[in-house]
Design brief:
Blueprint lengths: L3 H12 L15 H23 L1 H8 L11 H7 L4 H20 L3 H26 L18 H14 L1 H9 L4 H18 L7 H17 L15
Protein name: Membrane associated rhomboid family serine protease
InterPro entries: Peptidase_S54_rhomboid_dom, Rhomboid-like_sf
GO molecular function: serine-type endopeptidase activity
């Protein structure tokens, strides 16, 4: 009996998340990551095949573009699609790095739902907010309304979740009592900094920002935590 707490502590250290984030029946494996990588490859093959029929056919199935009501299914399918082999490889590597510890601390279903929902939010945010910011002086070209596809928004959400829910962040939050508005400002500042660090021509900056910010809030709330204490995490 005395050895069980130490074994659990070692498991928590490997996961990189808060100790009680592993309560309940977590998946205990990286299978959601492998499944997502397989989906990425399958969708990429389907993109290639449908592009041979016509670029418009491929875009209608996998590319998120305004108006959102024209092809509403692309809100989800675009999350798993990519603009080229390099785009696919870079997002796959980032998924493994940031998603692996999160996948080990939650269930397969919660992980897949989190990935799809945050990716969809990021893509829609890119389309909607681009229209609002496109006319701004100096930076308007950065936010031109363009079609969106790729898993970057969801991957950034995983990064945000990992940062906000790891043992160090949780430990600091338990010792340092700060107002909610200060926490909100810190989250916004961190999201802006990470987004600007990835700035490049053609990059969906608003999708990165939205995904990372949603991930931070979700990590603070520990929405992927399983077990009886899943609803007792700190709030923003």
């Amino acid at each position: 009996m005395a050895n069980r707490p130490r074994s659990r502590s070692r498991a928590d250290s490997r996961s990189g998340l808060a100790p009680d984030a592993t309560d309940g029946p977590p998946s205990g494996s990286s299978s959601p990551i492998v499944e997502l990588l397989g989906i990425f490859v399958l969708v990429f093959v389907l993109q290639t095949v449908t592009a041979l029929i016509g670029v418009g056919v491929m875009a209608g199935l996998f590319v998120l573009a305004p108006p959102l009501t024209t092809n509403p299914w692309t809100i989800v399918t675009s999350v798993y699609a990519h603009g080229g082999l390099g785009h696919l490889v870079s997002n796959s590597v980032a998924l493994v790095v940031f998603g692996w510890p999160v996948a080990r601390a939650t269930t397969r279903l919660r992980f897949h739902v989190f990935f799809a929902v945050t990716g969809a939010i990021a893509g829609v945010s890119q389309i909607v907010l681009s229209g609002a910011f496109a006319g701004l002086p100096f930076v308007g070209d950065w936010f031109a309304v363009r079609p969106v596809l790729g898993a970057s928004g969801a991957v950034f959400a995983l990064l945000g979740y990992l940062i906000a829910s790891n043992r160090l962040s949780t430990g600091l939050a338990s010792f340092v009592d700060v107002p909610d508005w200060v926490s909100a400002l810190v989250f916004l500042g961190l999201a802006v900094a990470v987004t600007l660090a990835t700035a490049a021509p053609g990059v969906a900056l608003l999708a990165h920002f939205a995904g990372f910010l949603v991930g931070l809030v979700a990590g603070r709330l520990r929405v992927l935590q399983v077990g009886s204490r899943a609803g007792n995490g700190p709030t923003v």
